[in-house]
Design goal:
Order of helices and strands: EHEEEEEEEEEEEEEEEEEEEEEEEEEEEE
Shape: globular
Number of helices: 1
Pfam family, one: PhoX
Strand content: 35-45%
Number of strands: 29
Distance between the termini: 32 Å
Helix content: under 10%
InterPro entries: PhoX, TAT_signal
Low-confidence stretches: 9-35, 38-57, 378-386
Oligomer: single chain
Protein name: PhoX family protein
Radius of gyration: 21 Å
Length: 472
């Protein structure tokens, strides 16, 4: 069973330390590097916890090479491998599936933590989520979720299937009532690619007893290439991103439940699905300046949420059209606003303009959309980095950002001051010595007490628990 620990205590080599310092300096000066531009007052975005203290100018310091070749961390931090693809599931239901993706941590009794983890398996995956009676939607689907339960000391007590028979479970998000919404980034219909049921739905997963939630698609929330969700904790509105990588690109949605904040199972009661229209902005990539702000955002009813004949992004939204964006990914709620990520945009692929990552804020009270963060190219490689993907708030204030691009892959931190620092680097080479390749990070999340960061390596599928001086 893969549950090992290591410590980042060895001194960094000069080249590693120099690289980390160079990257931080470039980020702060706005030169080429992990340059990030910020707009306005981001106090709610970078709130963190009440006990949080702002970090210094270099974050937690340079990354220390891991002698085991798994995960580089700053000095003083340690990781534990909680789970690895191909290992036996502790429930005895089969083996740990591949392609670890979105994830969230939920508080349990007596200090326990429940980690619900997505598996973005397509129908070609060799390590499928095992089918379990009462938890399987479509036996032909190889995706789904698994749940790890940890004791108060972080040791794995159990690991089991939470939902199976779904397809390409990419991200999702937690609900205010303590469940996980897992999203299918797939819109194949029954009879396509061997599937026996339509796909492209959201499913609710109970982290404690998945049989309470079962494998029921929340069809009213739309059938499209879902990525992530965030729930307005006061209004109960669910915001949804669509990661459609071919033009026409995805939309940003909101779901108005018939029974808002009704608790587990309430989303099955149905509701109304709408798409965002920003007047005069058909493509969000055309907006390049941080601080750009658009009032009077409109929400338009989706003609056919089940996309029976036509994908939603291709449906007729009237003479004014609708607003699209390439690679809409992470989505989360902070303060009084919802934030969502466009991972990158490429004009060569049909976007109105190029960028290396944007974070947008939508304030529902003001019906206002603001471009608050713009990411720059990654100098650790020779190609532009496809910077942000999964994002979460950090207990020290600021953000943790999973990088998803070419070359070396990192978890980056962004401080309240807008400084960028490397928090972790994947050392697992899935390529060859001549042409190395590293799997992306995904599913970054923190334990309820803020003392542990959990993060997945997509391939080889690995779940890490990282501890250290988070509030130093």
């Amino acid at each position: 069973m893969s549950e090992t620990t290591t410590s980042a205590s060895e001194p960094a080599s000069a080249s590693t330390a120099d690289t980390s310092t160079r990257r931080q300096i470039l980020a702060r000066t706005g030169a080429l590097g992990v340059s990030i531009a910020f707009a306005g007052n981001l106090s709610e975005l970078f709130a963190g916890t009440a006990a949080a203290q702002p970090l210094g100018h270099t974050g937690y310091g340079p990354l220390v090479p891991d002698p085991k070749g798994l995960l580089d961390l700053p000095e003083g931090f340690r990781y534990r491998v909680l789970s690895r693809e191909g290992d036996p599931l502790r429930s005895g239901e089969g083996t740990v599936p591949s392609n670890h993706d979105g994830m969230s941590a939920f508080a349990g009794r007596n200090g326990r933590v429940h980690l619900v983890r997505n598996h973005e398996n397509r129908n070609t995956a060799t390590l499928a989520v095992p089918t379990v009676k009462g938890l399987t939607y479509d036996p032909a689907g190889k995706g789904g979720c698994t749940t790890l339960t940890l004791d108060s000391r972080g040791r794995v007590l159990s690991e089991r299937v939470a939902i199976a028979g779904t397809a390409v479970n990419c991200a999702g998000g937690p609900t205010p009532w303590g469940t996980w919404l897992t999203c299918e980034e797939n819109e194949d219909k029954a009879g396509t690619n061997g599937y026996t049921k339509d796909h492209g739905f959201i499913f609710e997963v109970d982290p404690v007893d998945p049989h309470r939630s079962g494998a029921v698609p929340l069809t009213a929330m739309g059938r499209f290439q879902h990525e992530a969700i965030a729930v307005d904790p006061k209004r109960g509105i669910v915001y949804e991103t669509e990661d459609a990588f071919l033009k026409p690109f995805g939309l940003f949605y909101r779901f108005l439940p018939e029974k808002p904040l009704g608790g587990s199972g309430s989303l099955r009661k149905g509701g109304r699905l709408q798409a965002m229209r920003v007047p005069g902005v058909p493509d969000l990539s055309s907006i390049q300046d941080t601080g750009a702000c658009f009032g009077g955002v409109e929400w338009v009813d989706v003609p056919d949420p089940l996309a029976a004949e036509t994908p939603i992004r291709l449906q007729d939204f009237g003479p004014k059209g609708i607003t699209h964006a390439q690679k809409l990914e992470g989505c989360y709620w902070g303060g009084r606003s919802v934030y969502f990520v466009s991972s990158f945009a490429r004009s060569a692929e049909g976007s109105a303009a190029d960028h290396f990552g944007q974070i947008w804020r939508y304030d529902p009270s003001e019906r206002r959309l603001t471009l608050v963060i713009v990411f720059g190219p990654d100098t650790d490689i020779q190609l532009p980095g496809e910077s942000p993907d999964n994002i979460c708030l950090a207990p020290s204030g600021g953000l943790m950002v999973c990088e998803d691009g070419n070359g070396a892959q990192h978890v980056y931190g962004v401080t309240r001051r807008g400084e960028v620092y490397a928090m972790a680097r994947n050392r697992q080479n899935i390529g060859t010595p001549e042409e190395p390749e590293w799997g992306e990070f995904a599913g970054v999340t923190f334990s309820p007490d803020g003392g542990t960061m959990y993060v997945n390596c997509y391939t080889p599928g690995t779940t890490f628990a990282v501890t250290g001086p988070w509030r130093k």
